[in-house]
Amino acid sequence: MDGTASPFRAPVVALDGPDKVTGAARYTFDVSLPGMLHAKVLRSPHAHARIRSIDPRRAETLPGVVAVVTGADAARLPDPYYGVAIRDQPVVAIDKVRYVGDMVAAVAAIDEETAYRALALIAVHYEKLPAVTTIDEALAEGAPLLFDTPVAGEPIKLGDGLISLKEPRPNVLCEFGYAHGDADAALAESDRVFEDRFHFSRINHFHLEPHVNVARVTGEQIELWSCNQDPFVLRSDIARIFGRPANNIRIHASYVGGGFGGKSFCKMEPLVVLLAMKAGRPVRLCLSLDESLLTLTKHAGILMLKTGVTKDGRLTARKSEIQLDGGAYSDASALTVVKTGYRITGPYRWDAVATRAYAVRTNTVPAGSFRGFGGTQASFASESQIDMIARRLGIDPHDFRCKNLLAPGEPFRPGDSGIDSDLAKGLDEVVERIGYRQRVRSSAQGHKARGMGLSIGIKDGGGTGNHAQALVKLYSSGRAIVSAAAVEIGQGATTTLSRIAAETLNLPLDWVRYGAIDTDLTPLDNGTHASCGTVVTGIAVMRAAADARAQVLEFASERLGCTAAELALDNWTVRRGNYAHPLAPMIAEHYGGAGFEFIGRGMVKVPNDPKAPLTAASLFWMPSWVGAEVEVDRETGKVQVVQLVVGADSGRSVNAIACRGQVEGAALQAFGQSLFEELRYNGAEPANATPLAYRVPLAGDLPERYESFVLEHGGPGPFGAKGIGESGMLGVAAAIANAIEDAVGVRVTQIPFTPERVLAAIEAAR
Fold first, then answer.
1. Number of C-beta neighbours around residue 567 at 10 A
2. CA–CA separation, 328 vs 607, rounded Å?
3. Nearest CA-CA partner of 279 in 114, 94, 56, 65
4. Are 355 and 177 in contact (CB under 8 A)?
């Protein structure tokens, strides 16, 4: 923190803490309904094949099996496909399978053992087709097509002058184009132009709670319990897929045991609903961790940057071409492509920019949103090249960055909002904490060398039309319930939104409870993602609490014969001058024993602006300041991070401990992706799609010294808050890559920085 005094009444406590530490917290995993069946999924052994026939009869006759669903059942649905903007993923494979692990059929039985046995009895006849498992293979002339005809959906809507295309050419799902100024002319006039290429590997979300859903269909009503981050988006998808009105769809959301984007939007929920519909009984589907590894990944990609600079170190122009591996189906690739392409310029000032970004279809696990989606890929490539250019010019990387950083208030890009953080101040904080100015250069002697690297990641937050509604109910006793659809995924929404209401109502925090999320009862929210919960949903909650407070004061003013402006609310007492009037007896006298509820309503919608590149100016900016010190073994290529410093800007911390936790958790997640994590393929077969083989950091791998800080530069949310949940992810990979070059003089341009890759770079330099 920057040392400013807290504006809040009392230290915050985690309202969800007791539930979680005592085991009382209920997750979707814990849901059990009378007569509930258990489902399992048959998955494709082939990367690309046409389904010639499926015979489920032996499985259907197995004792204990109640229903089997295949593509024939899905094909009869009104609209059996889903995806964000572009809808190409079937509820279950209808005509083709497009990656190893694609869902081919599903069984609902009296228990999981019976369901597993039934899967082995389903006969599937495949006609194998050539597969494309890399971007280069998919884009090659005459490459096999994943889709023979155009799919449903529309391209992402963008601001004036930007390019957004759906399926512009074979095996390309979508294209994003953005430019301002004449990049070619600016590059031609630059003193130096540098071209570099970076590779971002495929990464799994690796959340500990598996994907799990329970569905019940009663008459026309569909009821679903899901570990999903977007209950109202899911409700809309289910309504469209099954052709039923939204008021017949009911979604329950509870605690989510980790998601990181992997539980955003639709996944296997429609399949569970279809099983429940066919079985006539509730159905539960819980995936194994192995199956989760084959459900969604972070986009692998190739990022090519061409950057111009003057001889004194001023950035002039950047042209970028970005190819993201979208895998077999759309999921959120269309959104990710836009965000990666827009964020590739980093937090710097440019005369001109030109970007093209694509999502390429391959016969691999689908890719979708992942914490900081698009921002991590963009920051890795951009901040790596910024460092490389500084070293080539003989300029200190810190000084080079500071020379080109956007100043507070300066628009990120024309038409967008101004930067709301002091980027140089945050970078200097890292420099001071890590000892960058006092670092000692490694000698050429010995097989171990140390180096330091810096990085500044940045992403937009809260824009692109986000909206939320909220209710705050005040009981006669002064106790309150906050009703909003920000899902508790570990980020502390339960506590933060309750505290916003408590502060607005001048009540103790422990008088406020966060209500269960139920789309029949909870006001709409467009999703728990993009670090919008505190700002967007928080504004709606603050407005709802203010509305409830106004109703209370109006009620009291009528009883006391004065105006509401003469009264103040404090601990469920109205004060008029030096006189205090408890509210509980006043309400009881007027309404009787049943009491009364004051129901406040609030909503917020980020305004659309066609002149803004992404159709709405960013509500706030999320910087990530990182410093890394590494030790590199020249003989083995092993990289040990000995010191890591990560900072972010919360605007104003509503829950300071949670802010630190979000920054630290995200940074260590990015640390793992930088050094270890990678979902590898051996041809068309996943090589390590199991938790036993998928390498994540162990306790012994963590940095020897790890420090975080949170600055407070103000923001647009309640009490000046900003979103912070994704920022810790953004700059870590580039800072480690920059430190490796500082240590041993070689650049590794592909994550993770495995010993093999680092050693290969060292040997190539020799």
1. 19
2. 34
3. 65
4. yes
**3-state secondary structure (DSSP) of residue 605:** strand
Give the C-alpha separation, 192 to 381, whole Å.
19
Buried b (16+ CB within 10 A) or exposed e, 304-337: ebbbbbeeebebbbbbbbbbbbbbbbbbbbbbbb
Q: Are 614 and 735 in contact (CB under 8 A)?
A: no
Least confident window among 83-97, 133-147, 166-180, 434-448: 434-448
Residue ranges in 349-492 assigned as alpha helix (H): 375-393, 397-404, 423-434
For residue 752, is the peptide bond before it cis, meaning its omega torsion is within 30 degrees of 0?
yes
pLDDT of 10 higher than 70? no
463 vs 608: CA distance, rounded Å = 9
CA atoms of 78 and 237, how far apart (whole Å): 12
Ordered domains of the chain (ranges, CATH): 17-25+466-605 (3.30.365.10), 31-129+206-293 (3.90.1170.50), 372-463+611-765 (3.30.365.10)
- In three state form, how does the secondary structure of 284-332 look? EEECCHHHHHCCCEECEEEEEEEEEECCCCCEEEEEEEEEEEEECCCCC
Q: What is the pLDDT of residue 5?
A: 45
* Residue 492 banded pLDDT, cuts 50, 70, 90: confident
Structure tokens at 96: 């083709």
Active site amino acids? 726
Nearest one of 695, 665, 691, 702 to 677, comparing CA atoms:
695
Per-residue pLDDT averaged across 727-748, rounded? 96
| Amino acid letter, 400 | F
Residue with structure tokens 């052994």? 45
Q: Which residues pair with 582 in a beta bridge?
A: 573
Would you state the torsion angle of the CA atoms of residues 65, 70, 72, 74, taken in this order, to the nearest 10 degrees?
110
Amino acid 3: pLDDT: 40
